[in-house]
Design a protein that fits this description.
The protein is mainly α and 98 residues long. Helices cover 64% and strands 0% of the residues.
């Protein structure tokens, strides 16, 4: 996650609005938001609680803060290694798609 934060943490709005690298890809902001929701779902599963929708805020610049929060929540839940591996794989896939 730290690599992703360093990669995108300095982006301004126009860069977030650009499409990812795949042909016909969604915006970079949408890609990162999807990761935020995935990590939040993994955290909820690890806690044994209900999954909750992470709000998609109007300002894409807050995505990094949302990413940090859901990652901290996931780690605080003490997930098993397979969940951490899924989180790492989702993060790597997002980095590649950006």
């Amino acid at each position: 996650m730290d690599l992703l934060v360093r990669q995108v943490g300095h982006w301004q709005q126009p860069r977030w609005a650009m499409a990812g690298t795949a042909p016909g890809a969604e915006s970079r902001a949408d890609l990162v938001y999807r990761l935020v929701q995935t990590l939040a779902d993994l955290g909820a599963d690890a806690e044994g609680g209900p999954r909750r929708h992470v709000p998609r805020l109007d300002n894409d610049l807050v995505l990094i803060d949302q990413l940090r929060v859901v990652t901290a929540d996931l780690l605080a839940a003490g997930p098993p290694d397979d969940v951490l591996a899924r989180a790492a794989a989702a993060t790597a896939a997002t980095r590649d798609a950006l």
